[in-house]
Write a structure and sequence with these properties.
2 copies of one chain form a homodimer. The first copy, chain A, is α/β, with parallel strands linked by helices and 461 residues long. Chain A has 2 domains: 283 residues, Zn peptidases (Aminopeptidase, 3-Layer(aba) Sandwich); 155 residues, Glucose Oxidase, domain 1, CATH 3.50.30. Helix content of chain A is 36%, strand content 23%. The first copy, chain A, contains 13 helices and 15 strands. In chain A, the strands form 2 sheets. The first copy, chain A, has an 8-stranded mixed sheet, with helices on both faces. Chain A has a 7-stranded mixed sheet with strand order 2-8-4-5-6-7-3. In chain A, helix 8 packs across helix 13. Chains A and B meet through helix 1, helix 2, helix 6, strand 13 and strand 14 of A and helix 1, helix 2, helix 6, strand 13 and strand 14 of B.
Chain lengths: 461, 461
């Protein structure tokens, strides 16, 4: 691209700026967002988290290292008080590397497949499971073929539906989340689930499952999208009559002590009214948890840093919360909401970033109609950032970690939404690393969050 | 992220879908965009272009290989007619690797810097240029210090302004484009220009300059952002009195024969009324020209493929044009417009993609108010794709390659706009490679373009 095109765009985009310069809020918000875009520390913080801490699965050594990183990052961002809030968290471990492959004496080199145990799953133990595999397209087919399931490994080969855009994940994740119990109900001995991702590659994507206590807990693994197709082809062809050997040493250990990491600035006018902004500390173990949810944590910390940097004194108490155990239990968010209830705290708003560090588009707004009318009137401040898409849902949620606050307090919820098309390529897999986050997009996300926090703090909701 | 969040988003996004399903246009457009998202060939085409052709600078062997790739890709996409349109293009060559470093006898190992000759620039020849360097922040400072410039190398250290978002490139590229002549006016012997990019790394970003014929043509290079800071520090410190040695063997050879590559489907009702959709073939030489502008070419080709795939018969003649020589001359677009004028063709709309394959946001719309009112009434069809941002400019342009059509024909212009924050990290540098393009984002861009082409073809403008 040569320069002519962008000069045209310059003129067009600039047309939306004058409105901004008319008010002192506009000037303050320009100062706030410029501070983030020019001097933001979110990208540096993320680098440190990814490269010196790495994965932070609940109960792991990484979780404790992450908590230390978080405390220091919050202090560096100007928190007046930075502390840990104890909570018991599940302690699931993957154990030795998983194995899945056909096992037959007919052939010299039987095919193997790239799999990862699904979080919270039980393992097979060293003896493994040896059984025939039945490929199933979806739950309807499972129900229709229930009589064939007993003693088999069920292979859910449900495809991520790329035409659903932002809802493709919610659609496909059902198989990872409840596929094991659905199959166990009919007597299956294990499940293999096609990775929940738009990517077509060799990376299995893990994540949590929830067992239904009415049925036996059976081992569960995810398989990379390429190997899902490979397995499907073998099952239709030369290995249709063969058993597959599956081994995972995953297991759930007793709950252990984890922490929400909290940084606070006391409000100047309404110190007892709290604004919570957060992301989650824990991450899956195949990589660094850069986008899930390192970016949410550094977004949140950056909001506090930038408000301090421009000398803004919040009226309400601002709390940055790095939630424990979002991925496989939600114990951190439950504890935070429970303690708030016990202390009779007043929570006026909560904001969460758990959709990655991509280009921000706006918020999911779970609140009352009256509150949303006020939020909607601020849309003009988000237009220059191209992040003015507000999705209203009366009483809806803004995210898994702030949801429990709404239950007890009717706290207005803001979930940051991003373009989100790259997120699920990396999500819960070996490529969720720092290098797949862009600095400018990350800082734009923090700028959008800070803008909303400023407005709610100044004008209430 | 666990599933709850996305289920909420699923519900919220779905809320905008019912409107779509009410009309036959909505159904046809859903079929069209689903075809692209599920079966799109743009990503595969881009892979082939990047990995089997590579760089395609005007006049280079890569350009000819690119033209062959383009002809084949257009035929594969269902063009009834695919042909070359001759045009003479500049033939600039970089020559042997550039060198820039302090040269002194005082020190054993003097520092060197990562530089690339700017396109269209003259070289120093083997003898190089040895001169003191003056760092200049901007053109104002150059004018103030004009008396110091004679015999010096001018180092423009103007920073890419990240707070300008979509207009940062247009702001900073002035120094690359006309910095050489501005300095030559005052007697400078060469210029070094800080790379026009938001990235902070070791990759110099090339691109074109335009010499002003009133002043001597002097050598010009870009320097990576990290090395710009390094050079600045040396100039303020231990090398403030030293000469810098600069060598580039760039030169402009005589013009040579290039081609616009064109694929066509004849219109069923208005065969003499033409819709042009295009990107440009040529690319800078440090990498593969994946995002600039491989993505624009495969976007355009995909529009034709998808319209064919769903069995849509266009009323107007659809022409996909892979323009020659956008980067350093614009000879391809000039030729296309000139021949259209000679043949008295009627061009009702032209669309260009030259902003990379990132998540699409909408179009720059250069047209009459009446035309824009019609376009704006179609906004609802773009909402499900989150690409409903239409930037209107009365008589404004949609891009460098389609601009000349407007001059002669008042052809309505559509320039695809993307989120665009990653584009200038790679632009014109060694990292503009296939791996930095996301398949789903790329296909979304083609879906947005195809949607507009369908509507204009069906309802006119």
């Amino acid at each position: 691209m040569f320069k002519k095109y962008f000069l045209a765009v310059l003129i067009l985009f600039s047309a939306s700026l004058p409105a901004l310069s008319q008010t002192s809020d506009s000037l303050a918000l320009k100062k706030l967002t410029d501070e983030i875009l020019l001097n933001g520390k979110a990208y540096e913080n993320l680098y440190r988290l990814c490269k010196s801490v790495g994965q932070r699965l609940s109960g792991s050594a990484g979780m404790y290292k992450g908590e230390e990183w978080g405390l220091q990052a919050l202090k560096d961002a100007g928190a007046e008080k930075a502390y840990l809030q104890e909570c018991m968290v599940p302690h699931w471990v993957r154990g030795q590397k998983e194995f899945a492959g056909f096992k037959t004496k007919k052939r010299a080199a039987d095919p193997t497949f790239k799999v990862l145990a699904i979080g919270n799953s039980v393992g097979t133990g060293d003896k493994g499971v040896l059984a025939k595999v039945i490929e199933i397209a979806n739950f309807d087919e499972l129900d229709r073929r229930k009589d064939e399931v007993k003693g088999k490994i069920i292979f859910y080969n449900y495809h991520f539906n790329k035409t659903l855009l932002h809802s493709a994940y919610g659609d496909a994740v059902r198989y990872r989340g409840r596929g094991a119990s659905a199959a166990a109900k009919y007597g299956a001995v294990a499940v293999i689930v096609r990775s929940v991702t738009a990517a077509y590659d060799d990376n299995p994507h893990t994540g949590a499952l929830n067992y239904n206590d009415s049925f036996p807990k059976i081992p569960a693994v995810t398989i990379s999208t390429k190997d899902a197709d490979k397995l499907s082809n073998y099952l239709k062809g030369s290995y249709s009559e063969d058993d597959l050997f599956l081994r995972t040493n995953a297991m759930m250990l007793p709950d252990t002590l984890g922490h929400n990491v909290i940084g606070e600035i006391r409000g100047s006018e309404f110190p007892d009214e709290i604004i919570t902004i957060g992301g989650h500390m824990d991450s899956w173990d195949p990589a660094e948890g850069a986008s899930d949810d390192g970016t949410g944590m550094v977004h949140s910390i950056e909001v506090m840093r930038a408000l301090n940097a421009i000398g803004y004194k919040p009226k309400h108490t601002i709390r940055i919360v790095l939630f424990a155990n979002e991925e496989n239990g939600g114990k951190g968010s439950a504890k935070y909401a429970q303690e708030a209830l016990e202390k009779k705290e007043k929570h006026i708003m909560a904001m969460e970033s758990d959709g990655g560090g991509e280009y921000p588009r706006g918020f999911s707004c779970g609140m009352t109609k009256e509150q949303f009318a006020k939020v909607d009137s601020w849309r003009k401040y988000f237009e220059p950032l191209d992040a003015d898409k507000f999705l209203f849902s009366e009483g809806g949620g803004g995210g898994a970690d702030i949801g429990p606050l709404q239950k007890n307090f009717k706290t207005a919820q803001f979930g940051l939404n991003t373009t989100g098309q790259r997120y699920f390529d990396m999500h819960h897999s070996a490529i969720d690393v720092f290098e797949n986050v862009n600095a400018q997009e990350l800082h734009l996300g923090a700028a959008v969050m800070a803008t909303m926090v400023y407005l709610v703090d100044k004008y209430g909701l």
